[in-house]
DNA sequence: ATGGTGGTCATACCA
């Protein structure tokens, strides 16, 4: 039995609770990191997850926007929430879990989308996104405490040309502008992180995890982007068994615009 | 160049 972690921007955990429970029944990840839960902590549907076999839950939620949750079958310890840009948004939650002989620190992230205009001088949301990335540089894969690390979530940036349906047409679109993709790859490498999705799936292959709601036929147009990521400390490359991007979830009834990504590790 | 859809919370805001 490998150890598995899934990440999914659910775009309202309460509206899509049945979808999440169906996903857990069918794929049985050991842990699920949710983003955009849009749910205050006192209204989080803890009991439904407990009944599904996920007894360990850490949440960081607020009313209306953002929010992350880490749901696990195994005990979670040392929950920590880092605030970014002096704004009280719920966009980060880290926990520690045991997998085989390793202790894993798992960062669950929801990076700001950044608005429409890719100019920090006129768009405060884009300035916020760049400021957020700047502060993310403090996240290192190896801290010298003996823990392995994962950093997962909706990072709202598609770094490679093959992470978008058209590199040329998206160069001036927020999520794929050079300032974003270059900052993103620099902070990943400087932090010592391995892009585990790309470690498993060759970089020349197009892969997407998000398709806009604003398409008449998302599957036919297939104008997707890889906005959701699974990074790991380099030691986890050797333990990685597979990556699954659940494209079919975009076609489920009343779907999120993001699909789950599952990483399986040979750690038990 | 524009608007297209979907979620929250109640009127626009955010994605």
- SS-derived structural category: alpha+beta
Largest sheet: 6 strands, mixed
In terms of DSSP E residues, the strand content is: 25-35%
* Strands, total number: 14
Helical segment tally? 7
Average pLDDT metric: 97
In CATH terms, the superfamily is: Endonuclease/exonuclease/phosphatase
CATH architecture: 4-Layer Sandwich
Rg over CA atoms: 17 Å
Q: Which strand order does the major sheet show? A: 3-4-2-1-14-13
CATH topology: Deoxyribonuclease I, Chain A
Helix content: 10-25%
Which outline best applies? globular
Number of domains: 1
Distance between the termini: 7 Å
Low-pLDDT stretches are none
Task: Quickly name the level 1 CATH class.
Answer: Alpha Beta
What would you note in describing this structure?
The protein has 268 residues and is α+β, with helices and mostly antiparallel strands. The protein has a single domain, classed as Endonuclease/exonuclease/phosphatase (Deoxyribonuclease I, Chain A, 4-Layer Sandwich). It is 21% helix and 27% strand. The chain has a 6-stranded mixed beta sheet. The protein has a 6-stranded mixed beta sheet with strand order 5-6-7-8-12-9. A two-stranded antiparallel sheet has the order 10-11. Strand 7 (102-110), helix 3 (124-136) and strand 8 (148-154) form a beta-alpha-beta unit. Helix 3 (124-136) packs parallel to helix 5. The chain is globular and about 45 Å long. The N and C termini lie close together (7 Å). The model has no long low-confidence stretch (mean pLDDT 97). The protein binds one DNA strand of 15 nucleotides through loops.
């Amino acid at each position: 039995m490998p150890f598995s972690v899934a990440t999914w921007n659910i775009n309202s955990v309460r509206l899509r609770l049945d979808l999440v429970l169906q996903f857990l029944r069918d794929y049985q990840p050991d842990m699920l990191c949710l983003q955009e839960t849009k749910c205050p902590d006192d209204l989080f549907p803890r009991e439904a997850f407990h009944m599904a076999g996920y007894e360990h839950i850490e949440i960081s939620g607020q009313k209306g926007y953002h929010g992350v949750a880490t749901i696990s079958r195994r005990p979670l310890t040392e929950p920590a929430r880092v605030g970014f840009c002096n704004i009280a948004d719920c966009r980060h939650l880290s926990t520690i879990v045991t997998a085989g002989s390793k202790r894993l620190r798992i960062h669950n992230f929801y990076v700001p989308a950044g608005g429409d205009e890719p100019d920090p001088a006129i768009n405060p949301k884009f300035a916020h996104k760049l400021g957020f990335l700047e502060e993310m540089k403090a996240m290192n894969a190896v801290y010298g405490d003996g823990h392995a690390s994962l950093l997962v979530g909706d990072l709202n940036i598609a770094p490679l040309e093959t992470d978008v349906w058209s590199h040329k047409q998206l160069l001036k679109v927020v999520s794929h502008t050079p300032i974003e993709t270059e900052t993103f790859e620099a902070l990943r490498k400087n932090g010592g992180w391995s892009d585990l999705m790309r470690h498993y799936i060759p970089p020349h292959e197009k892969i997407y995890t998000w398709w806009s709601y604003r398409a008449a036929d998302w599957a036919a147009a297939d104008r997707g982007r890889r906005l959701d990521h699974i990074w790991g400390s380099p030691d986890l490359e050797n333990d990685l068994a597979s990556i699954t991007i659940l494209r079919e979830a975009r076609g489920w009834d009343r779907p999120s615009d993001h699909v789950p990504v599952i990483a399986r590790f040979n750690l038990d």
